TrEMBL record:
InterPro entries: Alkaline_phosphatase_core_sf, DeoB, Metalloenzyme, Phosphopentomutase_DeoB_cap_sf
UniProt source species: Marinilactibacillus psychrotolerans
Keyword annotations of the record: Isomerase, Manganese, Metal-binding
Listed name of the protein: Phosphopentomutase
UniProt GO BP: metabolic compound salvage; nucleotide metabolic process
Keyword DNA repair included in the entry's annotation: no
A Pfam family per the record: Metalloenzyme
Amino acid sequence: MGKFIVIVLDSFGVGAMGDVEEVRAQDVGSNTALHIIKKIPEINIPNLLNLGLMNAIGEEWEGFKFSEKANWGTANLSHQGADSFLGHQEIMGTIPPIPLNEPFSASIDKVKKHLFENGYTVRKLGEEHEPNILVINECVTIGDNLETDLGQVYNVSGSLDLISFEELTEIGKKVREVVKVSRVITFGGENMDLDNLLNARKIIDNKFSGVDAPESGVYDKGYQVIHLGYGIDPKIQIPSILDTQDIPVSLIGKVADIVQTKSQELYPGVDTQYLFDQLFEQVDKMSTGFICLNIQETDLAGHAEDVPRYADRLEISDKNIGRLLDKLNEEDILIVMADHGNDPTVGHSQHTREKVPLLIYSKGLSNRQVGLRETMSDVAATISDYFETQKPANGVSFMKELIK
């Protein structure tokens, strides 16, 4: 066994899924990868092309041709919608149950009661005629997340000058026990206090109320975060399964924040080059183990509908992928994939429900196809086969197609 490396180019989808007309009509016609290539025909991504990007897209365009030697496939999303958090849980081998979508005001009373019964001081903040937030122990707020699709996420935000991250996490877990939305994001920062949080409180459509996290300053210094997902059992995901076998696990980028593991090799961050530098350090020191890297700046460019920025981040990623290929030995396997789409040309700034590429590299392996997989969890199942461990909760391995 060697290293099994997964690089998630966040949002780099290769074409709308077949169900979008029914479930996400706004995503009809989306194809993140192809449309970026067409908008920026001078884009320089030779390694992604050699790995089979156009094969995964399913069509050639001008100078962008199919690769004859690539190992490739595609995968549908089996989670609801097109979400980075749920997408990464799926990649790791679980598909959470469908969560509720509702404003925090629908849960505020049961959350208040549950926290009070567990010994916290709790008060509502807001006028009677408007949606409220909660203030806990005079240093933490709970309300709607205002930076993602409304109704999907609640934020538990705190000042780490007034409460430890461990104590803050316990509050987040108590909220998670009684609500059924997709995520409870629990986070805090330093050099800020309750007033900074309260002064950033906003109300949207007289239905959603929460703290504008960037405006509060919580991200500016000492930021720590944990994402608590609905219906997530990390024990049956591939990182935790590898943990039990003492197989090294390293998570780099956003995946380090949203996937749970006992490993201490966690390297959160956003800057693309910084994250690849962390990847190279792990590759150099790890003889065997699992590494997952998420490149988030592609997704941020998609949200900004900024095609040139997206192309630039792809070029940086491609250059680093080429450097990585030179470091891999015959036992190592690399998969470059995505977690959904985010087509910056489709006419809106949200994620798009697209198939994702599976671009597979192992030294000496060529011209293998793994087909269209029904779920991204097949990646986790393949990792379990590679390391000969317990299977994750979901997924079918394609390891047989990769045997040399």
